[in-house]
Amino acid sequence: MAKRSRIEIGRAILRLAADGELRPLADLSGAAGAPPVVMLRWVIEGRRGVHLDGVKRRGEWWTTPAAVARFLKASAAPADAPA
Q1: Using CA atoms, how far apart are residues 28 and 63, in angstroms rounded to an integer?
Q2: Residue 83: pLDDT above 90?
Q3: Which of 28, 38, 20, 36 is nearest to 68 (CA)?
Q4: Closest to 31 (Cα-Cα) out of 68, 83, 70
Q5: What is the pLDDT of residues 25-55, one digit of tens each?
Q6: How far, in Å, are 13, 39, 52 from residue 47 at the CA level?
Q7: Is 32 helix (H, G, I), strand (E, B) or coil?
Q8: In the 8-state DSSP scheme, what is residue 6?
Q9: CA dist 22 to 13, 49, 79, Å?
Q10: Angle at 17 between CA 62 and CA 21, to 5 degrees
Q11: Residue 77, SS3?
């Protein structure tokens, strides 16, 4: 598990701001096919070197439907394929 740099975190926040429509992880768990606790792990630890863009807001973690789609596409790709 590689720790993300402040620059990477900042870029993730900018992507979320551009997406709009922030929603709690629990609201998007059906679309992601994973429970909110797993989605939180994707935000914090990542999966296959890819992190789900997310932000903590009002005591809970939020993301966007577009961020979930980007994450699922990128993390499903083989490790040697370009993202």
Answers
A1: 8
A2: no
A3: 28
A4: 68
A5: 999 999 899 999 999 999 999 999 899 999 9
A6: 18, 10, 8
A7: helix
A8: H
A9: 11, 23, 29
A10: 55
A11: coil
